[in-house]
Amino acid sequence: DTAVSQTPKYLVTQMGNDKSIKCEQNLGHDTMYWYKQDSKKFLKIMFSYNNKELIINETVPNRFSPKSPDKAHLNLHINSLELGDSAVYFCASSRGHDYEQYFGPGTRLTVT
Amino acid sequence: AQTVTQSQPEMSVQEAETVTLSCTYDTSESDYYLFWYKQPPSRQMILVIRQEAYKQQNATENRFSVNFQKAAKSFSLKISDSQLGDAAMYFCAYRPLTGGGNKLTFGTGTQLKVEL
């Protein structure tokens, strides 16, 4: 009974490629997020969607484009991958402005 | 902008002993939430404990408790009777009560080692 799931868990790709990471939550939440954890383990928010509407868009390169087809899904598409994009990407969800966010297992992206 | 500072990159504790992890934060808001998350080697982010700033009583969850000092903007985590399974990276996080899109701001983390 996975609450927040991400696919794939590991992704190795070459510079210049385009890749997507998928996120799904079965908690009935209406707010979803993407966080990036860098090599020093620093976690920072990238995007937040509420009811499929973009709420937060931090200073992220426009090569990153989130897409929310419905409230249960928030996918992250990355164009023209760069070495610096290597990181662990976490999806999370919450019930509106409820204070608890539930995190997915993370996707380790390695760009070579 | 809100910032969260964890000044201890690494801490060690003997099994069954008590350890305290430090966290300070900066905000101009009067109402907000504070959290401690645990990230074991499995990478999963696990919520350990949360504190509402409007509550004076310190939150407690079994062996985990916090010392919340609002005036000092300090939010430390105490782990009692440490167990091997407590070994993990611990992140302190801040979230405004309203506005900000429910954004969590994290500290840089403290790696906790538990020794036999």
Highlighted features:
heterodimer; A: 112 residues; mainly beta; Immunoglobulin-like; seven-stranded mixed beta sheet; four-stranded antiparallel beta sheet; 11 strands; B: 116 residues; six-stranded mixed beta sheet; 0% helix
Protein model, in words:
By secondary structure, chain A is mainly β. Chain A has a single domain, classed as Sandwich (Immunoglobulin-like). Chain A is about 0% helix and about 55% strand. In chain A, strands 2, 4, 5, 6, 9, 10 and 11 form a seven-stranded mixed sheet that branches. Chain A has a four-stranded antiparallel sheet with strand order 1-3-8-7, with no helix packed on it. In chain A, a hairpin with a 2-residue loop joins strand 7 and strand 8 (about 75-80). Chain A is globular and about 40 Å long. With about 120 residues, chain B is mostly beta strands. In chain B, about 0% of the residues lie in helices and about 50% in strands. Chain B has strands at about 5, 10-15, 20, 25, 30-40, 45-50, 60, 65-70, 75-80, 90-95, 105, 110-115. In chain B, a hairpin with a 4-residue loop joins strand 8 (about 65-70) and strand 9 (about 75-80). Chain B is globular, with a radius of gyration of 14 Å. Chains A and B meet through strand 4, strand 5 and strand 9 of A and strand 5, strand 6, strand 10 and strand 11 of B.
Compact overview of the structure:
With 112 residues, chain A is mostly beta strands. Helices cover 0% and strands 56% of the residues of chain A.
Helix and strand arrangement:
The complex is a heterodimer of chains A (112) and B (116).
Chain A: E1 4-7, E2 10-13, E3 19-25, E4 31-37, E5 43-50, E6 53-57, E7 64-70, E8 73-78, E9 87-94, E10 102-103, E11 107-111
Parallel strand pairs in A: 2-11
Antiparallel strand pairs in A: 1-3, 3-8, 4-5, 4-9, 5-6, 7-8, 9-10, 9-11
Chain B: E1 3-5, E2 10-14, E3 19-21, E4 24-26, E5 32-39, E6 46-52, E7 60-61, E8 64-69, E9 74-79, E10 88-96, E11 105-106, E12 110-115
Parallel strand pairs in B: 2-12
Antiparallel strand pairs in B: 1-4, 3-9, 5-6, 5-10, 7-8, 8-9, 10-11, 10-12
